[in-house]
Design a protein that fits this description.
Elements (H helix, E strand, L loop, with lengths): L3 E8 L3 H9 L4 H4 L5 E5 L9 E5 L6 E9 L3 E8 L2 E12 L3 E11 L3 H31 L1
Helix pairs in contact: 1-3
């Protein structure tokens, strides 16, 4: 059983702008219906080791820790709960014309990952899709 989901989409905005919007995590609730509150510690730019307390509809508040950043290209954060670890990656790739292709991916690992995915996988997929739609809309709005 798949315990992962990936959504790739084009954004009519430059990679630098997509990077800026996607890494300004405390503002995510302004453009994505998948989050109601994000608090980043320490304040400022994302860095490996930064944590974000994320409140989402229908889910308990979770603390996500940034585990990897390739500046301007990708960043990954993860959280653990109920014996499962969830890893989410945001990737920005330049495409022709100075525009962008973005991939949002999420996967679950661990002893209870299959059971957690069975219960929450549909919601996770809907939240990744909502984040993709919001990110695309926000970046293109700013680029006009």
């Amino acid at each position: 059983m798949a315990r992962s989901f990936e959504h790739t989409f084009d954004v009519d905005a430059p990679p630098s702008q997509v990077w800026f919007v996607s890494t300004d995590v405390e503002r995510m609730p302004d453009w994505s219906t998948s989050m109601t509150k994000v608090v980043l510690e320490p304040k400022g730019s994302l860095a490996v080791g930064s944590t974000a307390r994320i409140t989402q509809p229908k889910l308990s508040t979770a603390t996500w820790t940034v585990t990897d950043i390739v500046p301007g290209e990708s960043w990954t954060w993860e959280t653990s709960a109920s014996g499962a670890r969830t890893i989410a990656t945001h990737t920005v790739v330049p495409r022709e014309g100075g525009l962008s292709t973005v991939t949002l991916s999420v996967r679950m690992e661990g002893a209870t990952a299959a059971a957690v995915w069975l219960m929450a996988g549909k919601l996770v997929r809907s939240y990744v899709t909502a984040e993709a739609h919001g990110l695309k809309t926000e970046c293109e709005r700013r680029h006009r």
